[in-house]
Amino acid sequence: MKNKLIVYVSFIAIFLFLTISVSSIFAQSGGESLKLDKLIDEALNNNPELKAAWERANAYHERPPQVSSLDDPRITLGFSNLPVDDFDFNKQDMTQKVISLSQEVPLPGILSLKKESATQEANAMEKRAKELESILVKKVKKAYYNLYFINKAIDITEANQELLEKFVEITKTKYSVGRGIQQDVLKAQVELSKMEEKIIDLEQKKSTIKAELNTLLNRSQEELLPEPPNIKKTTFTYNIETLQTLAEETRPALKDVAHLIKSREAAYQLAKKDYLPSLTFTASYGQRDNRLRSRPVRATVTPVGGVPDEVTVLSNADRDRPDFFSFMVGFKVPLWFHSKQSRKVKENLRLISEAKARHEALKNGIFFGIKDILEKERRGSKLIELYRNEIIPQAKASLDSAMAAYEVGNVDFITLLDNQLTLFNYRLSYHQVLADYEKDLAELEAVVGKRLF
Q1: Is 302 exposed, middle or buried (0-12, 13-18, 19+ CB in 10 A)?
Q2: CB within 8 Å of 74: residues ≥ 6 apart
Q3: What residues have CB less than 8 Å from 278, skipping those under 6 apart?
Q4: DSSP letter string over 134-162?
Q5: In the beta sheet, which residues pair with residue 298?
């Protein structure tokens, strides 16, 4: 009689435990919790890969002023026509010290095209950084929802473990009074051990996900993170046409390629101008020394002890030499245009075609991604409601019925255990579907290129 009372009380405890645990599936947790918005903000501010992308984009924005400026002028110093017999600078009239200033001046439109090409390339790099922002937000959200599911899986598995421990006690009690078989005891113990194995596996996955989050946030791998709260299914109101329009307007990757097309179109126009010669202006100044020359003059000469006498002697006199100024215009002749300039034009035409094809392929991929995720959203939404309103309540009712039948001996322990494991798996599936649903929406945001939720 005493053993029967123990079995009866155990079943009552199990029933109450199931009622509380199933109703807690949809309850909200309290206390400090992990906030998704704060995680996203921290990742956007601290992620080193994103910082590198923005630094690269900012570096590219320094290029347009460089390429749109004239080349540095060239100053040349030297001398010309210096006689090699005595290296005398004032011996020959054409000997001069020369300073030259040269400046290459491109034809009108070339510098503006260089600036346009560099500006569009810098804009493309900026959109590439924005694309990385979208990818980073998606990664943070997916890690967050993975952590949510793992936490729920651990909670549900631990609750199921407690229930199986009670089942083990019941089977042992029934076996001890001759109302059960040893196989039931062993089966319950095996399932209990499998729950322990599952918890070990889940704890390892939880540690990995937290390390992933810390990496995205640029934190230490071992830094502690609070647990995410229970989540609610996000309300979804978008249709495919709206999402496709949004993607065309906002997806950074599409804008990246669009700017690249404009950059290559400017490069194509620039390549065509290479057929024309660029001009080089050179101004030179040649400084010449004044030349000394001899001329006869009358002078009085008095020999020692003699009589003064007037004689003719040679005297040196300066002769002014005017300096020289020269001005020249030079230009490059595109003599090898067939193998150089023409090839450059064709190269840029092909690069434009490649970029346009890539833009079209990317757009098609985006539209397919939107369609695919919308189908997943519809499926996920239906499954969430199905698990919440039908499958889990029905599985709970089936388990309650099996417990009542097992108590009076109408079903065997295997049937009872099977019903319990079925409920356990459905509860896991519910939270998996909910987490997958939210991850699909995070993927949709990345495909569209805009925060939607």
Answers
A1: exposed
A2: 100, 101, 102, 103
A3: 104, 105, 106, 107, 110, 331, 332
A4: HHHHHHHHHHHHHHHHHHHHHHHHHHHHH
A5: 312
Predicted TM-score (pTM) above 0.85? no
76: region left, alpha or beta (phi > 0 left; psi from -120 to 50 alpha): beta
Task: Identify each DSSP E strand in 64-185 by its residue range.
Answer: 74-80, 96-105
Least confident of 234-238, 294-298, 381-385: 294-298
Cβ–Cβ contacts within 10 Å for residue 212, how many?
17
3-state secondary structure at position 75: strand
Domains and CATH numbers, the chain: 2-75+107-276+334-448 (1.20.1600.10)
Contact 98, 286 (CB under 8 A): yes
Residue with structure tokens 């000469």?
A: 301
Contact by Cβ (8 Å): 281, 105: yes
Q: Kindly state the percentage of the chain with pLDDT values over 90.
A: 69
- Residue with structure tokens 């065309």? 248
User: Which of 293-297, 407-411, 442-446 shows the highest mean pLDDT?
Assistant: 442-446
How far is residue 267's CA from residue 152's CA, in Å, rounded to a whole number? 56
